[in-house]
Amino acid sequence: MNSILDTTTTIAAVTAGAAGGVYLAFSAMVMPVLRTLPAGESVVAMQRINIAAVRLPFMVVFFTSAATAAAVVVADLVTGRAADDGVGRIVGAGLAIAAFGITVVSNVPLNNSLARLNAGDRDVTEAWHRFDRRWSRSNLLRGATALLGATVLAASLARSSG
Questions:
Q1: How far is CA 139 from CA 33, 88, 145, in A?
Q2: How far is CA 40 from CA 2, 66, 125, in A?
Q3: What is the pLDDT of residues 90-106, one digit of tens each?
Q4: Which of 66, 123, 57 lies closest to 95, judged by CA?
């Protein structure tokens, strides 16, 4: 069971780290550029990005992170290892799951609202700024949460092998 749990933990750590890296890179590079464009152009660009994001490469990372993190928690609880040496794994996995949850509860609904926005609407500037504030705050939170989860998961692997 140890090698299976270690493999699952490794996959959870890597995919949580990859997802967190995407989120933070987006905050550091993409959103600042979108803020330099007229609001209508930013809306159209973000709508296109959101369509492109829901494709196999990112979806594999996104769902694998949540699924393997959940498997780590279940395995630790079922085997009783949580009480022994699994606390770090459970915390790291919980953070990875929380990042997934932030996406589902906050970013996805905001993306869906943006998808219904017409770039030519009179109030597009106000709508874009409102979206940007809320989405960017949530994106930073999910990015930091995913990367922290990945770090804690990786540290738990180092502790279990050392």
A1: 16, 24, 10
A2: 53, 34, 7
A3: 999 999 999 999 999 99
A4: 66
Average pLDDT over residues 118-143: 97
* Domain limits, the chain: 2-161
How many other C-beta atoms are found inside a 10 Å radius of the C-beta of residue 70? 17
Residues 117 and 39: beta-carbon distance below 8 Å: no
Q: Is the pLDDT of residue 82 over 80?
A: no
Please state, rounded to an integer, the average pLDDT across all residues of the chain.
Answer: 94
Tell me the whole-structure pTM to 2 decimals: 0.92
pLDDT at residue 158 greater than cutoff 90:
no
Phi-psi region of 37 (alpha: psi -120 to 50; beta: other; left: phi over 0): beta
Instruction: Give the separation between CA 160 and CA 116, rounded to whole angstroms.
Output: 48
Give residue 41's Cα distance to chain centre: 25
